[in-house]
Design a protein that fits this description.
Length: 306
Amino acid sequence: MYILFFIIVLFLFILAASGIKIVRPYERGLVERLGKFKKEVKAGIHFIVPFFDRMQKVDLREHVIDVPPQEVITKDNVVVTVDAVIYYEITDAYKAIYNVSNFEFATIKLAQTNLRNVIGELELDQTLTSREKINTKLRTVLDEATDKWGIRITRVEIKKIDPPKDIMEAMSKQMKAERTKRAAILEAEGIRQSEILKAEGQKQAAILKAEGQAEAIKKVAEANKFKLVTEAQGQGEAILLVFKAIHKGQPTNDLIAIKYLETLKEVANGTATKIFLPMEVSGILGSIGAIGELFKKEDGGETKNA
């Protein structure tokens, strides 16, 4: 009797436990009762009627689908092998379960079909250099097609695009030739720039040298000018002093007077620096020159007598 009671209690406990369902935060639960959709439940603990209700959980996290490699023909009739991955997330659990039987398989087939269409519109060079464009276009097409399934395509990434072996070898030779050409151009451009800079340097050096020589000539000319002006000023001042001394009748030393008179004679005869004086002064200077000659003769006679 006790054993039967224990079995009944154990059966009821197991039955009640089977009706308790836990839904995680990243899941949604779809409850069916006798084959008919009843409700959608969120995260938490939920109780369903055993044998009558059934709960199906849907993961709302982002998932990754690996699209198997497939051969695709480009616009210029080159066969390439393309491998891609698709990132998606479920936005509507009800549509993902009831609008498509197997959304992952359907998404893969849809991606393969649209991948052929997208790459078929591009030539080989465009296919190899326009991965971002292919990714964006393929994501847009898939997202529009899977919207009715409650699925949002977040990203599509082309993993690799493999052209045929002979095409790869031809591309490798072309790239090598292009690099050689680029190196030759850069080398020629470097030589050209070097020659230009060298010529510019020589030009600047010649200009600086010419400017230096011109400055030196200018300085020398200024020095000569200053010397001549100073000498002329000194001679003028000497003439003025002698003239004042003679005019005022001041006594002067004979030797100094003779030297000044010799200088005055040279000025009067035009052998010294030319100084333009009024007519009256020129007459006086002529007289002074004659006096100087007289002094010289007398000095010569005294010397001979001695």
